[in-house]
């Protein structure tokens, strides 16, 4: 491959581990993508669609071709679901991402907390691997979350394990605006 | 301490380790701080002042009370310096940060790649510890870079070690726009 080909090779990146920085680092990458003028899609598999982060507000202020969606809401990390069908919602969310990747909707994709529906078997790992492998054009995909399934790690180009050395939550501190969201 | 006090307790965070995501995660935190309407100061101890990242362009587009400066330029990670006095430049850069912290110039500080001048003894670790410990008001400080000196880690509230599991550079790929800068 030529240098140019290498430089434009689409990558799959995974930010996993129990430490902080998985989502924030992915959002930092999204900023870089935005600055290149790329279409950016952020799809968050989050507990509640009402959860609105500072990052989302910042991207709304930036403008440009940015899509920011909450997918498959209603589940929680403890699996104590409040929604009627969080599994179906997650599956539907992934279905839309799959269609978007086939249509090359974005050049930069952030699938935030996507490891949870994968780890729980709500979304098929094999199907995700196939969609990533077959994706057309130059689409970068960043997946974040704890306990990333090994086949996804094996298929990724760039994997970082965020390891907590020290965390204020373990010292009795609560989350706070501007730092945790 | 009350919940409110805990929630507004200023923190020192360190992103260290050989993996990706140290700076990008800190920039993501800066976005959150920006979204809170806080004054944000990003001070990068970088090789060259000409190095302009996508993040910087994005913050310029966001506007608000954001300062983004390159401090103590001219050194390199390999210590093969090109500038006349990179050590003096780093020291001067730190001096301005120290004054800014005393004056409560920002509510959120990002001292990017600051571990290098610390690790090389260009900036005194003890002096930095004192400035952090004595800082007035509610100023959050995030320090990034490899090989963070242990006393800084000991003094920090939140420490994440970014561990590389897989990196495209180790597989022959070059850095690329939108991903690496």
From TrEMBL, chains A, B:
Segments crossing the lipid bilayer: none
Gene3D superfamilies: P-loop containing nucleotide triphosphate hydrolases
Protein name as catalogued: Cob(I)yrinic acid a,c-diamide adenosyltransferase
């Amino acid at each position: 491959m030529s240098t140019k080909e290498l430089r434009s090779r689409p990558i799959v990146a995974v930010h996993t581990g129990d430490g902080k920085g998985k989502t924030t680092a992915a959002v930092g990458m999204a900023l870089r993508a935005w600055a290149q003028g790329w279409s950016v899609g952020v799809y968050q598999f989050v507990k509640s669609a009402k959860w609105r982060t500072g990052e989302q507000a910042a991207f709304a202020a930036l403008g440009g071709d940015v899509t920011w969606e909450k997918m498959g809401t209603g589940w929680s990390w403890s699996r104590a679901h409040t929604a009627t069908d969080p599994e179906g919602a997650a599956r539907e969310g992934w279905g839309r991402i799959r269609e978007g990747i086939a249509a090359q909707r974005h050049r930069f994709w952030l699938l935030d907390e996507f490891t949870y529906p994968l780890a729980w078997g709500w979304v098929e790992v094999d199907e995700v691997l196939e969609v990533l492998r077959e994706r057309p054009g130059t689409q970068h995909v960043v997946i974040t979350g704890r306990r990333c399934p090994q086949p996804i790690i094996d298929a990724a180009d760039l994997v970082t394990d965020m390891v907590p050395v020290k965390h204020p939550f373990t010292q009795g501190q609560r989350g706070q605006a501007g730092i945790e969201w």
